[in-house]
Structures are given as C-alpha cells and as structure tokens.
Amino acid sequence: MPDNFFNLNNPDFWGILIRFFINLIFLSLLILVVYFRYSKKEKFVFTFFLMGITVFFISSMLKSVFIEFGMAVGLIAIFAILRFRTRNFSLKDMSYIFTSIAISMINSLKLVGFPLLGVVIFNIIIIATAVALEEFTRKFNTVTHSIVYEDLDLLKTAKKQKLLKEISVLTGKNIIKVKIRRVNYKDKTALLDISYKE
Of 65-69, 89-93, 95-99, where does the model show the most confidence? Predict the structure, then answer.
C-alpha cells in the first residue's frame, strides 16, 4: 500500500472537495429549483444529478492521467449522446442534460490565477438564464384540445366572447382561443379546437 494512501492533506484533494460542494449547490438549483419546478418530471432528477456528479469527478481527476481536456469533453459528450439516443427525450430535457454536464465541467476546472468568484458568477448566469427562458416560454406556452360542442348558436362571430366564457366554465380552463374545425348540422354539433395556457 502506498505511503500516501491515508494522507488527505494534499491541497488538490481539498480543492476538489470545495469545488464539488459548489457544483452540488448549483446542480441542485438547476435541477430542483428550475427544472423540476417548471417540468414536474421527477423521473429525470436522479439521472441529471448522478450524471453531473460523475462528470465532475471524472473531469477533476483528468490532470492525474495527463489526458487532454478537449478530448475528455468529447468522450463525455459522445457517451452521453450514445446513451440517450435510444430514449425519446424532448429538446428541453436534452438541454438540461447538456447544462448539467456543462456546469459540472466548469466547476471541475482548476483554473490557475482565475478567481473562484468568477466561476460562481458563471454558474449564476447559467441558472438565471434557465429561469428567464422558462418564464419567457411559459407566457407563450399553450395547450390545444379538440372538443365536441352542441350549442351552435354561440358559434356566431358576434357571440365569440360568450362562447369563450362558456367553454372556460365547462372546462375549468382559461380559454384564450377557439377554432371551429367541423360543423355537423344534422347532429347539431361542432368539433372545436380550444387553446389555453398551462
């Protein structure tokens, strides 16, 4: 057993641990405060955390094996893409996977002469950008459903506001748009597309 097996006084070890706790704080903000709050998908929380933590430690240890950092980034990206290509991820989920990897790699770097506060500021910028984009897309995010409607009299242009109000009461949603797809005069029904904000 080597002499330094139990020696944890190495400054590199403590530096990695400090950066790891910083990484864990910002991963938690990204995954729990931003991603889970807006998506409500708990099934990916485990994946994002474990991937971020693993990438952090791999990247932190790279200088010990003298591998080029660019090559390491490429390897991690390829493995991530190969693993997740078989799963049907949305673009937003893929963005969060990449952001988890990116935050972990930024925090794992031991930048000589670069202030730790600068790394923290970069993390804050990434988290703030994610929140701003979520809020921005939420304002314009609408859901559309088709329903069968029986009161053909309210389909007249002059009664549009009354129609919106009645469908809002029936569905319990704040309906912002109604589009008539088809009218069946024999059955006195209409197929409508209704849109509302999530």
Answer: 95-99
Could you tell me the two tokens for 161? Answer: 């506001």
Distance CA 114, CA 124 (A): 17
Reported as a single tens digit per residue, the pLDDT across 134-148 is: 888 877 777 777 888
Q: How many CA atoms lie within 13 A of 183 on its CB side?
A: 10
Alpha carbon distance 61, 138 (integer Å): 39
Rounded Cα–Cα distance for residues 149 and 168 (Å)? 13
Q: Residue 111: which H helix or E strand, with range?
A: none
Q: Helices 11-28 and 91-108: crossing angle, nearest 10°?
A: 160
Around Cβ 193, how many Cβ atoms within 10 Å? 13
Q: Is the pLDDT of residue 52 over 60?
A: yes
Distance CA 178, CA 171 (A): 13
Report how far residue 107's alpha carbon sits from residue 21's, in angstroms, rounded to the nearest whole number. 10
Measure the CA–CA gap between 73 and 101, rounded to whole angstroms: 9
Summarize the confidence of residues 171-189 as an average pLDDT.
84
pLDDT category at 83 given cuts 50, 70, 90 is: low
Using an 8 Å Cβ cutoff, are 192 and 169 in contact?
no
Distance CA 149, CA 46 (A): 43
